[in-house]
Amino acid sequence: MADDTPRFYRIEDLLRVMVRLRDPETGCPWDREQTFATIAPYTIEEAYEVADAIARSDFEGLKDELGDLLLQVVYHAHMAEEHGRFGFKDVADAITAKMIRRHPHVFQDVSLREGFKTSGTWERIKAEEKAARGESTSKDSLLDGVPLALPALARAVKLQSRAARVGFDWLSLAPVLAKAEEEIAELKTALASDERDEGSPASEKVTEEFGDLLFVMANVARHLGIDPEAALRDANAKFVRRFRSIEAALRAEGRAPEDSTLEEMDQLWDEAKAAESRKQK
């Protein structure tokens, strides 16, 4: 009797697919010519698509996006193996060992569990790992090691969190909000003296003040326990949702946004906002 059980591909199958794709004679010409540098942007993009699927609660999509992200890990590991550096099994071994090593309260002594978050154990183990690799654990600055490649808002929060460890932080939200108001005032002052023509790039001073305002707003988010990247993604989604409602309403009248006035679109925006509020009640 034939086995009707559906076949599920395993990680070993994915690894073999990558070998075929990168084969110098029978592989894919595009895949074969890729390097760590050319693949890195795709790796970042796939990580964002995972976050997007989570934000939309699209779990079927999340399955696919996690697969795409896994492919990136396999891709980099295989290229490293081609260079004789390491392979996928080394990546899996390293992260498994690291998780066991950094969770002694789970894998060694459960009595350490309660105080783990405030014990500094994670940081101590990381320092020991660096020392074992021969890396210097001393830093010129507390801010060293915060990746430049992080999204700017996320990096701002990490920089502020590092500084807060040594007390360089406001103790409550009120002075942070006051600082935001101060930065808005400084941006207005810079704009008042900006002689640029409408539509042309802002001056360096205006750009600087705008950056300061964004940095403070990242600090507001940190004090509120909000992920600013996630909050902005939600705001983007809300804008898309409401603007599409405007387009749909105008389409029903045989018109397009460019055929309407700002006042008309603003009214339709308010109607879309009100409709969302009713649904949430």
Structure description:
It is a single chain. By secondary structure, the chain is mainly alpha-helical. It has three domains: 11-102, MazG-like (Helix Hairpins), CATH 1.10.287.1080; 139-226, MazG-like (Helix Hairpins), CATH 1.10.287.1080; 230-280, no CATH class. The chain contains 13 helices and no strands. It has helices at residues 11-21, 29-32, 36-55, 59-82, 88-102, 104-107, 116-119, 121-132, 152-164, 173-192, 204-224, 228-252, 262-280. Helix 1 crosses helix 4 (59-82) and helix 9 (152-164) crosses helix 11 (204-224). The longest helix has 25 residues, at 228-252. The protein is extended, with a radius of gyration of 26 Å. The model has no long low-confidence stretch (mean pLDDT 89).
Radius of gyration: 26 Å
Helix and strand run? HHHHHHHHHHHHH
Report the count of strand segments. Answer: 0
**CATH architecture title of the largest domain:** Orthogonal Bundle
Shape: extended
Could you tell me the strand content as a percent range? Answer: under 5%
CATH superfamily of the largest domain: MazG-like
Parts with pLDDT < 50 across at least 5 consecutive residues = none
The N- and C-terminal alpha carbons lie at a distance of 56 Å
